[in-house]
Amino acid sequence: MLAISPNNQQMKNSDAKDLLAELTRLHNYLYANEGLSKEAIFKDISKIIAIKLYAERKGYDPLSASTGAADKLSLLYTIGAELSQVLQLPDFTSFTLSDRALIVALESLSRFKLLELRTDFLSDTYQTFFAHYHRGARGEFHTPYPIVSLAVKLAKPKPSEGLVDPAAGAGSFLVAAARFLSATWGKGENPDWSIEEYVRDKLCAVEINPDISLFLKIRFFIEYSVEPKVISGNGLVFALENEESFDVVITNPPFGAKGKVDDPLILERYDLAKDWKEVHGKWIVNNPTLLRPRPPEILFLEASIKLLKPGGRLVVVVPDGILQNSQAGYVRSWIKQRAKLRAVISLPSVTFVPYGTGVKTSLVVLQKRLPQEASQPAQKVFFAVSSNVGYDRKGRTLPGSDLERIAEAFEELVEDVTKKGQMGINHGEAGFLVEESAVGERWDAEYYLPSRFQPEQEERSARRIFSAEHTNTEGLSTYKLSEVATFKETRLSKRKLSPDTLVQYVEISSVLPGIPLIGRAELIPVKDLPSRATYTVNAGDILLAIAGASTGTEKQAVAWVTEEYDGAICTNGFAVVTPLPEKVNPYFLLSYFYSDMFLEELRRLLKGHAIPAASLSDVKNIPIHLPSRHVQDLIGEEMRKALEDLRKGLSRLKAVKKVISPEISMEVLSLVKLAWL
Hints:
alpha/beta, Rossmann fold, 9-stranded mixed β-sheet, 21 helices, disordered N terminus
């Protein structure tokens, strides 16, 4: 490869951008004139790029602008046959494009000297070009480079370790791993180490789409002149045939796919495809012979762990539903028996939007358990919540990415043996630690976020027990919410009511943000109540919204049930809370539901991205920090007076609305104005 000076390199980087623009223009031209699919055109352009680069490396350079059209075609096939022998692929001798189109493509690329471009720029240009024409058809959303880079830093592969991606796609994790090791081991300090040998001997890619497999081979040929072991096949089958063969797995398996894996020959070999049920808080296989079609992301988790040697590391992109939903509890239970949770990094919902999906995801780091695992001391689990991955939902650069700081925090708090177990300066900033024994059924990072109202020496625990005996550093007695209030559990039975009986129905939208009163209720017959109409409420109850986008925010819906709504029906989007006056001042509890302390706790319990919601069982365990009864009564009395004023104001407002009509006289309007003054 030519040595390039900094100024010349800047020019070559510009050439790489020009090359991407030219490839895109060429693709669009051929798509409009050849009548072929975008994928078929992309495949042929990829072959031409590889043949041109191979020709330049060999010094042939027969595809320049000065070469005649007929000679170009002849040389294209001749050099393609030679490259097929080098890569042991037959593909470089066959094209879908017509001869005329091949000439257009060769002439379009003739002004570029690929060998003069830095290979990583050329490789990335090719990857960007590829991403334009392959996205999301089967849930294979391409992983953004900032996430790829973070995943490799978390995995921290070593030169001696075998690394595989069982759902390799464009091979971004493998390319990044090779670059990571080139940067850390290829600076002359290890003269016996060769990046080419590492790529050839230690990297392995499995990809079910043969066209993408070809792309992956070409990309590595562009960057390293050699290719890793590329298997064109099903990663789920590969894992069954290569158990405990690799030290590291880094992958982003298909997720959000339209279909599930239902091949019985695959399902029968996977534990997570069996029929599971929860019994007394533990997940067991209910029927070993009953197989359940599963989303690919679930089976790939099991496949990845199968591929690891004992002690091996897995870094995987996981939809948040697997980490938090109760229905996926069997997945977490199975994993916990076979691997240790090392880290969870929550990614913002924007992460995959520019690539075709808005599914909320996290990066999860697991380590396969050793046979003698029981004798090893417990570790701490690293959690972090990213709010900026370096780009917005349209893919535009966004300054202030926190991914590098998260990688550094992981290195400091987990990997650095000189600081292992310490809560370093990054605690609460880029990442934080949780005792392994304190990690409960949920694994989402937001659930374990340290509260600013929590004593610093305490660490978040999903199973932390709150009781009257627990008192925080400010002298506030702490209880579970269920210790100071009861919850409506009995559901409405429509069969016990006449279908035509009119009832007041309260939705979350019936409560105005920041005003703890029901603004209005819809009067409808029982037969027309929606399925979510669940609880009968009584005067003195508190309606606490536990579902919806505003839950846990400053727009939290909370309402005191007044006498006029006694007996109304409300949606199951509310928790119906009845304060126990002997334990807490009811009006104080109403005001507490607006506090930052409470909203932070409620927010961390939310599950789901589209419609976030907290389970009633989790809400019951929210800690309530109570001051002395005297202080409660003072605050509660102010809230009671405020409610009275609000009720009077709403009554006046309703009266004014009734007065206003098209026939209203100016005299009446003046009287109303005077009344408000």
